[in-house]
Structure formats: C-alpha cells, structure tokens
Amino acid sequence: MLFMMRTTVVIALLPVLTSSDALQDAWASAIVSFFGAALLVAMIAGLGVRFPDLTIVEYAQKLIGKWPGKAVCLVIIWAFLVIAATDTRIYAEALVIGFLTETPIPFIIFSMVITGATAAYSGLEVIGRTADLLFPIFVVMIVVSLAFAIPDATTMGSNLEPVLARGIGPVLRGSIIPTVVIAQYLCLTMIIPAANQPKKALGTALWALTGSTMMLVLITLAVTAILGPHQGSRAVFPFLSMVRAIYISVFLERVEMLALFAWGFGIFIAVSVFMYCGSRALAQVLGLDDYRPLIGPLAVIWGTFSVHSYQNLFQLRTFFQPKIGGPYILSWILIPMGILWAAYGIRRLAGGKPDEE
Amino acid sequence: MGYRIGIGKVRYMRIHRRKKEKTGDPLKDNMDLSQRYQEVQKMKLEPGLEQNLQTLQQVCGYSQDLKIRRFNINGQIPAALVYLDDMVNTLSVEEILRVLMVDVQRIEGWQKDRSLLRSAIKDLLIINSVEETDSIGELFLKMTHGNTALLVEGQAAAFVCGTVDIKNRDITEPLSETNIRGPRDGFVESLCINITLIRRRIRVPHLWIETFEIGSLTKTQVAIAYIKGLADEKMLEELRSRLERIDTDAILESGYIEQYIEDQPFTLFPLTLRTERPDIVCSSILSGRVAVLVTGSPHVLVLPADFPMFFQASDDYYEKPPQGSFVRILRWIGAIISVFLPGFYVAVVNFHQELLPTALLLRVTASREGVPFPVIAEILIMEVLFEVLREAGIRLPVAVGPAISIVGALVLGEAAIRAGIVSPAVVIVVAMTAIANFSNPVFSMAIVLRILRFAFTILAAVFGLFGIQFGILLLVVHLCSLRSLGIPYMSPLAPNIPSDMKDNFLLAPIWARTTRPKILGRREPVRQSPGQMPHPGKHSQEEIKGGNKDKNR
Q: How far apart are CA A111 and CA A90, in angstroms?
C-alpha cells in the first residue's frame, strides 16, 4: 500500500518539474488543481475499490461485456503508452539541453526504456521494492534542492506580488494541465488488485495526491520567486532553471545535478510502472497468461513512439498547452471511466450487485 | 537433543548410470571407480579373521596408513585392531588391548559360548561408544572418523570403538576478519569443534543441529544449526531440500555448498554471509537465521543474508551505539566511494567539467597536461594494475612482501607520475578507491564492489553521469529482485521495514532494540522486555546528595 502511495507521489510530481503556467499565481493554480484532481482520482480508483480483486481489463469485461470491455481498455493502454513515452521524451530533452548536448536523443530514450523494461520484466514486486528504495532518495534530493532555494526565494519574494491581480480566470486556466496529468493515476486501475489492502486504495491515492500537491505548491512558489513570473512561465524546464539559478557557495554551484538525478529516479519508476501496467493490460486484453513476452516488443514500440511522436521540444510544449493537452488527456480518463461508471450505475439501478457477480 | 545424524541420503556417483552393470572382483585392477564403489558397498565381513584383514587391505590398496595390530584375546582367540594412522588416540587403543588381553578373564564362560563374547566385549571396553557393523564400506567410513575396528576370529561383524583423536588446528583469531573489541576465537576445520564453539554460547537444547552427508567421494559432513521454534520451518524445509538435492562427488569447502544453495545463481552478490567468527554466527542464529557448517572449512555460511549485513562488523554491537553508528556510516561512504569514485572522476573530466569548482578544475586539467592516454584508459590501467598488485600481495610469501610493496608504491605511483604517464589525480582516485574498499568488513562483498567499479567506470566513460545513473537503476532493480532463502535481499531497505532500521545505517542502543528482524524473527518477535534504559537509581542519587552534605560540612 505504501508502495502505491510512493509511486503515485513520484509519478504525480514528474510533470510538475516541467510545466508551470499562470504567472505569479501559479501556486494558486496548484491548489485549485487539487480539487479537480481529487475528483478524477476518485473516479479512477473508485471502481477499483469496488472490484478489489480485478484489474480494469477484467471488471470492464464484466460490466459492459467482453468485446466492448476490451475496446474501452485499449484507450487506457494507449494512455499508458503516451504517458510513458512523453515522460521519457521530456527527460531525454532535459538531459540533452542541459548536459549531454551532443548525445542523440534516441540513445538516452532507449537506455531509459531498457532500464524500465528490465524492472517491468522482474515484476510488480520488484518495482515496488525499487520504489521503496529510491523514494527516500528522490524526496531528499528534491527537498534539498528546494531548501537551497530558500535563501534566494526569501530575498526575491516580491516576484510573487501582486496576488491574484488578474482575477481568477488565469488561475483556473493554469490549473487545467496539473489537473489532467492526473491521468497518470490510471496505473492504479492495474495496481490495485496487487495491493495489500485494495479497499483502502482510494484513501491512499488521495493522501498521495495531497502530498504531491503540497510539493507542487512549494515548487511553483520557489520557481516564481526566483525566476520571476515571466521567465518562469517561459522556461522550458522551470524547476531545473530554478535550481540552476541557485548559488550557495563556490562548491555548491551546481545543485541541478541533484534535481536531475532525482528526476531520473522518478522517471524510471514511472516508466517501469507504466510498462508493467501497459503490458499486463495488453496481455489480459489478448487473453495471455503471462505479460512478460509482451515487454520486449512493447519496449521497442515505446522507445520508437517516444522518439517519433515529437519533432522537438516545442511540439512537446505545445502538447501541454491547456487548449490541446487538456481535453485530450482528460478524454483518457473520462471516456473509459465514464462508460464504466455509467454501466456500473445502470446495473446498480437495475437492482443487480455488479461487484458481487 | 544433541545431534541428528544420518538424515541426508548417501548419494552415488552420477557416472555409474552410464556404465554397464559389471560384477567382478573389486580387488582386480580392471574396475572403474563407480563399479568399484558399488562392489565395496556390497561387500560384507566374513567369519574368518585373516580373510577380513586381507580384504580390508586390498580394498584400500595396502595403503600405508591402514594399521593392523594382531593379538589374541586372553591368549586364545585371534583378533585384530584396525585403524587409520594418526587419527586415533594411542592411549585408548592400548586400553582396548589391555582389556582384551588381560581383563577379559573376569567374564566367565565366554570361551564356551561365543555369543557371550559379543556382550563381554561391549561390557568390558571402557570406550565411549561401541558399535557393530558388517559392511566393509561402512566400516572404512567409520575408521576415517578416527574409530578403531576390532575384528575377532569367527565373528562376521566388526566392533567399531570410538577412539577419535584427530589433530586439529588451534582455535585462533581469524586472520581475514580482525576486530578491535569482542571475542578472539575463530572457527577451525573440524566440524565438531565448530559446533562446540556455537553451543558454548547458546546453551539451550533448542539449538538443533542436523547433519547431512554430501559428496559421494569426500563424504563430507554438512551441518545446519538453528534454534528450533525461532527459525522459520518453511525456510528450513527449503534449505534441507536444497542440500539433499546436491549430487556431486566432492565438497571440499563451504564455498561449494554456497553455490549449490543460492536462490539466484546469476548474480555477483553473495547471497550467503560467510564468516569465521562464532559470535557473528551466534547472533545470526539468535535472530532466526540458519548456519551451515561444513567439515574441513572454517568458513561458516549464514543464511538468509541481507545486503546491509555485509556492512556490519561485530565490533559495532560491542562498542557504544554512537561509535558503532559512526563506523557504519563510514563503511557505507567507503562502499559508495569504492564503487563510484573512478566513474565519477571519468564522467566529470570527460563530460561535466562545470560541476567542479573552477580552482579544482584548473588543478585537475593542469595535472593532466601531457598525459598520453585518455582518462578512461588511464583509470582502467591504474585500477587493473592495482588489482593485480593486491592479488599478488595475497599470494606473496611473507618474506618478499616488503619488496613488492616498495616496487608497487614507488614504481607504480611515483615513477609513473614523474614520467608523465599517468596524472597524479588518477593516482589519488585509485588510491582512495582502494583504501575505501578495505573498509568493507566482508571480503565476498568487497570483491563485488571492486568488480562493479569497473562496470561503472566504463558506463561513465560512455554516458557520463547519466551512465552512472542508469547503472544505479539497473543495479537497484537487480538487488531488489534478489532473495536469499526466500527473504528479500534488500530488506529492511526494500521492502521498507521501519522497525528494523534500528540496526541498519544507525545503531540503536541495545536496550532499545527489543525486537528481532521482522521477517526472520516473526515467530518470536520480542527479544527482550522494553523499558530497560539504564538510569541512576534512587539509591545512588541519595548517595550523591549525601556526599555533597559531607563536603559542605
């Protein structure tokens, strides 16, 4: 159970490191996004709690029939594919821009995909233990890089003013992306049956969401304070730029390495979880007993997808515009979960007990 | 409830299966080992004394250490003592002779009734054990343990008398695991002595020792020691089945056993802790682990082992907790340095110069001026040279040791820098790595770290720091997927068990460590009652006050 919480905190924090909108009120957007996100998490995890022993592929087939169920699950598998590919691509771009300027991107992407595939091949238990081991390091690294920012942030606190000067509109618009990236929690639909206490999954997920929102607020505050609202929203990787701006002493000039390593650990956990969930879900859709034979081919698809779906960083940034990414990512959650909830509701009204069949 | 011997099955050699069954005379030269073995196994003692003696001698090819002492019981019945040279206690053998040649007269009527002789011998011999056997194979096996066989004319069985007196090395301090504080005894090559060393420390009958016989030619005795009721039964069952599965001709060291019983054979990491120190074995047994002892090996295996165990020395527990914790942190730092430092150096110099403060960077660059090799070649050459030097140091005769250290230090270090072949920075890195590696208390883990260092250096040369990161990730996944006798190798780190963290990086005081490791000791989780934190009692406080009063006066 703790593993799930840890994994989801990590996963939810990842986009935070990359996207931050809404000028000086970004922190307010972060808080607003919590409520929308909580609703979506409840939607995602709620059904899983009602079918504690089944993955989404299994209960979807139960709720709306064999073939429609499988079709709906394809949407979720697609989501896994896109999320993992995008996460990897973002990380690779950050590395290439900041550190390995001459390394071809596919090289980095495939290193990450192979590493993730190894973990996924070893099974969920191993991913869980790995997350257990890496999570403290991840959190400590992020907290340390935030702590280093405190001296600078306090002197430049004026960047945060004026509060809510442009009204509530931009704040709401800014909260769209942090809300919809909660689609990452879709992995819960595959993990819940493996948890120790599936019934408590929803609570755990919400706690994880709270934790990651707090981190999000802190990070956006630090970013806006140090970089200033305009540069902050323009920066490609705001968090990295912020950490790069930190100057403690001659010896501690380069704290961004810490953040990047932490990020790498996080990406790794995310990618391995998504690869596991994706291949497991696909195996169940196809009716295979074991998901492991699928990992190899899927890893290739994942890597290729990651390389080819975005030409460059600007396409990546465009993807995360509220106008484009918002409805698209939201549809991954709303379409399958909406259909399944509707089916569940109808069956309930019809007097059946769908979760006990 | 002392020993449970004979649970293990005697295994025959695999080779006998592809040979045709061929019966014949084992005393002839034309039989191969497996056929000979089976024939000897079938052979029985005959009533004739001389015939038996001759068979025994022929079976072992008139080897010179087979000693035969012929005599007559009470001057009438021919008999013989057979034993292997230097394995028996001479006094005991003489005692048997005296009893049989002189004291036997006290039993009446044995000359008439031969069956009385058997009981007469059993009654008269003042020897701690007398057994009977009629199989030649079994008889010889018992003689190799230091027993003496008594063969009597007209008896188709031999009396095996316990006269064991096998010479052993003294119990000395183990050379490979020295410590500052704590007991100085170490295991030796004798199984019995090793078992004694454990039993002297754990004095309850619940310390059970099961013995197996493994190896069709060496007949090595392998014992597992555990506390009944504490060690997990499923775990024990698994270990037993793994031991019984072994079908080989020879077990010469516990390292052989180690390779047969590991959970995951394809890993660099040691999945069993091997130690020469009885105190480490005892503390492991007391927390629910199992020890595997092998005749002829002073290295005892402890399993299940977990990763943090390899960074703990017994001193840590004997010193006060802050000292112990300090040393442990140092050891982890040492391990991290010994794995990552060369890789980090290569990555920084090749890819990430900006990570170094400018002054340091200038120094490093200046020292690399004129060096003919790329950094990676430089580092690899020096590391390999150092590893060779270290290996040579182990094999060196003591007398020439100083010569090698002079050559190693002067030629490799000083001269290489003077000649401009390697940069001083690389020598510093290699030296630091080497010294850091020596801080690891367990050789089997230290050598893994040494091997990993090469992998990480090469990764760093290819990918820079991110190569190291990918390496770390793969390493962590691998470590997390390992199990030792079913217990996750990385526990208590992953799965994270907060209650076991009291004895991990930091060491809690002994009165605060009230529980056993959670997974291992789940049958009896509580080790001691809580609330034993020492505090100055009422009595002593009054005394101090009284002392003050006295002074005031």
A: 14
B266 contact A CB<8A: no
8 Å CB contact of A254 and B354: yes
3-state secondary structure of B274: strand
Between helix A2-16 and helix A256-286 the angle, nearest 10°, is: 120
Maximum mean pLDDT: which of A134-143, A184-193, B88-97, B121-130: B88-97
Subunit contact B351:A257, Cβ cutoff 8 A:
no
Render A53-88 in DSSP notation, one character per residue: T--HHHHHHHHH-HHHHHHHHHHHHHHHHHHHHHHH
Taking the Cβ of residue B358 and every Cβ of chain A, the question of whether any pair is shorter than 8 Å is answered with yes
* A332 and A78 Cβ atoms separated by less than 8 Å: yes
Residue A15 binned pLDDT confidence (cut-offs 50, 70, 90): low
Looking at residue B99, its pLDDT comes to: 83
Q: How far is A260 from chain B (nearest CA, A)?
A: 9
Q: Answer for the pair A85, A305: CB distance below 8 angstroms, yes or no.
A: yes
A164 three-state secondary structure? coil
> What residue segments make up the domains of chain A, in order of their start?
2-356
The residue that leads in pLDDT, A222 or B382, is B382
Name the closest residue on chain B to residue A137, using Cα atoms: B493
Is B498 touching A (CB cutoff 8 A)?
no
Rounded to whole angstroms, the Cα distance separating B375 from B368 reads 9
Token pair listed for B158? 């031999």
Residue A231's nearest CA partner among A245, A217, A246, A218 is: A245
Q: At what angle do helices A256-286 and A56-64 cross, to 10 degrees?
A: 40
Q: Is B352 on the interface with A (CB under 8 A)?
A: yes
Q: What is the pLDDT of residue B165?
A: 85
CA distance readout (Å), A106 to A95, A111, A114, A153: 12, 8, 12, 36
**A354 phi and psi, to 5 degrees?**
-60, -30
Spell out which residues of chain B touch residue A112, defining contact as CB-CB under 8 Å: 470
Look at A179-193, B3-17, B392-406, B454-468 and tell me which has the smallest mean pLDDT: B3-17
Q: DSSP assignment, residue B507?
A: B
Alpha-carbon distances of A254 from A91, A92, B303, B357, B361, rounded to whole Å:
18, 19, 43, 9, 14
- B209: helix, strand or coil: strand
Strand B207-214 to B3-4 pairing: parallel
Cα angle: B114, vertex B116, B120; to 5 degrees: 125
Closest of A179, A202, A193, A190 to residue A45, by C-alpha? A202
CATH (one of 1.10.20.140, 1.20.1740.10, 1.10.287.40, 3.20.20.370) for A2-356: 1.20.1740.10
Q: pTM value?
A: 0.87
What is the enclosing helix (H) or strand (E) of A205? Answer: helix A201-227
Distance CA A297, CA B45 (A): 68
Residues paired with residue B159 on neighbouring β-strands, in sequence order = B132, B150
Domain residue ranges of chain B, discontinuous segments joined by +: 43-161, 191-305, 317-488
A124: its two tokens: 């969920």
Are residues B466 and A132, on separate chains, in Cβ contact within 8 Å? no
What is the residue-wise DSSP string for B292-359? EEETT-SPEEEES--GGGGG--HHHHHS-HHHHHHHHHHHHHHHHHHHHHHHHHHHHHHT-GGGS-HH
Cα–Cα distance, B440 to B432 (Å, whole number):
14
Tell me how close the Cα of B344 comes to any Cα of chain A, in angstroms.
13
* Chain B residue at shortest CA distance from A134: B476
Measured between beta carbons, which residues in chain A are less than 8 angstroms from residue B496? 2, 132-133
* Residues of chain B contacting residue A99, judged by C-beta atoms under 8 Å apart: 351-352, 464-466
Q: Which residues on chain A are in Cβ contact (under 8 Å) with B344?
A: none
